[in-house]
Amino acid sequence: MSITTDPTVTIATRSATEPVGPAPLRFAAGLALVAFPVLFTAGIATSPPQASDASRDYVASLGADPALTALSAGLLHYSWVAFALGVLAIIGLVRGPRGRVVVPLAAVVTSFSAIQLSGLLAYDWFIGAAANTVPLDQATTIFDTAVADPWVATWLVSGRLVGFVGIPLVIAALARAGVVSWWLLLAPVIGFAGFVVPVPFGILAGMALSVAPMIVVGARLLQRSSARVRREEIAAS
């Protein structure tokens, strides 16, 4: 007489005994978030110096050293690409009821904003080329006209939200979920002081400090990508 087995029991037993490997996408996202502050800080450090915040001086600075402009814009562009791709994975760090709404919201909003910001870096090449192709006054007029367009203005505002609001929002959301400490919020708060305190390299140091917490978030993703952690997550589910 044959003995039949419940197929659901067989499936459950098989899934429980199957080997569990590391999570490659989570690992890649962790690396991206760790790389983001490094690339961003390097991009800020190599930004062409300008005499003032006036449009004319900004355009002149981009045209003065095309190689430096390209290096800085490239580093900044790929820093935000890394952020936009990596930040979506923080949703997987939530392990309880807390943060299940705010963490996905923060991830999607800041990823969209970073995509906006990464695309804006393209005009560094174009304005730099314009500064070396036409008279400086004409190049400045081109820049001012483009920035004044409502589409570009909206692009700028939505992109800048990452730096001033997005990263603190991500940290606060993850702290609410118990993934990171609330103390990490001090980094962007203190970092913003670099914009108003007149000290040498204050802006560079402030920007670097503001984005540094993402290294901690990236490290959390790297830890959660291991096969051991995945087995524990499956066993707890």
UniProtKB/TrEMBL annotation:
UniProt KW keywords: Membrane, Transmembrane, Transmembrane helix
Keyword Transport applies: no
Residue intervals passing through the bilayer: 27-47, 67-94, 101-123, 152-172, 179-197, 203-222
Keyword Membrane: yes
Identification of the protein by name: DUF4386 family protein
